[in-house]
From TrEMBL, chain B:
Pfam families to which the protein is assigned, alphabetical: Sigma70_r2 (PF04542), Sigma70_r4_2 (PF08281)
InterPro entries referenced in this protein's UniProt entry, alphabetically: RNA_pol_sigma-70-like, RNA_pol_sigma-70_dom, RNA_pol_sigma70_r2, RNA_pol_sigma70_r4_t2, RNA_pol_sigma_r2, RNA_pol_sigma_r3/r4-like, WH-like_DNA-bd_sf
Domain RNA polymerase sigma-70 region: 14-72
GO MF, one example: sigma factor activity
The keyword Transcription is assigned to this record: yes
Protein name: RNA polymerase sigma factor
Classification of source organism: Bacteria, Pseudomonadati, Bacteroidota, Bacteroidia, Bacteroidales
Family the entry assigns: Belongs to the sigma-70 factor family. ECF subfamily.
Source organism of the structure: Proteiniphilum saccharofermentans
Amino acid sequence: MNSEKINSLLEKYWNCETSVQEEKELQTFFSGNSVPEEFRQYVPLFSYIKDEQSISLSDGFSERLQNAFGVEGEGKERYITIRIFRPLLRIAVSVLLVVGMGVSFYFISKQDNRPQFVETFEDPNAAMQHAAYALEKLSHALRKSETASVETIQFIDDLDIDWIAIDSLNKDNPVEIDSVESEE
Amino acid sequence: MNIDSFHTVILPLKDKLFRLAYGIVREQAEAEDILQDVLLKLWSKRDEWNYIENLEAYCFRVTKNTALDRLASMAVRKTGVIDPEKENLFFVDNRSPHTEMERKEQRSAIDQSIGMLSENQRLVFTLREIEGMSYREIAEALAISEDLVKISLHRARQKMKEILSVYHKDE
């Protein structure tokens, strides 16, 4: 950079018209070793700025900060992890909800749609025959059970039980002899 | 989101915040203490970050206020004191005793004149010259208008210019 440019930049600098970039250029120029005599007087200012810029945190600071955070809340680590994953947890929960609802709706609707009786016959005559066969089977079974019960009653009658003797065992509530006898 | 802001917005600012605090209290250990306090304070208020318009500027304001409080509680205002060790490191290029002494004098003149600046001027000067922040960023960080930033910086630079030229004439 020539003297003229430096002069105009400095002029702008004193009047606060320089951009951050231009100020950086000035700093670079003044931190060099070959500053012309006419500008020497300004070196201390830019040296000061450069010096201040180089000030930084001591090496142990990060560790110290971590310790400070550790002391501030023991067991906070777990909390932090939960906080990190909280948005994810939210998403997971909502996905689960939606999937669960979808699955249950699917099964419910499937169940509702399934007909209780399915028409399996195409020929009405065949259906009629099958129905007649089924009914006949049912009536046969009913008749069989009826015969069985009649037979049982007959069998008990044939035993010729002494009802009065049995009744005397239960004096509080005697069976009426008349009705028993009349039945016979 | 809060954790993210802490790592993406606040922690990267730690050097700048440290230098801001350092610019106010002029002591390494004290400034580190302040930064630690500030970070803990910010962390404890993490639930409020979402409501803060400009978190970065907010960090600067908290640091500035904490440092100023600390400065007020420190018995002596420590401007113009520099670490002799650092000074030697900086002037390592020019070892001749004469120039070294001359520069030391100049340096202390600068330190003194910075100590003479008003609080706003000094903060603006620090944020602009050392951190290279834009006028708008400085205005937001210090919660003052952009015009006031420009005026403060202008006065600070004029004062520097004056002191440097007076010093130059004296030689």
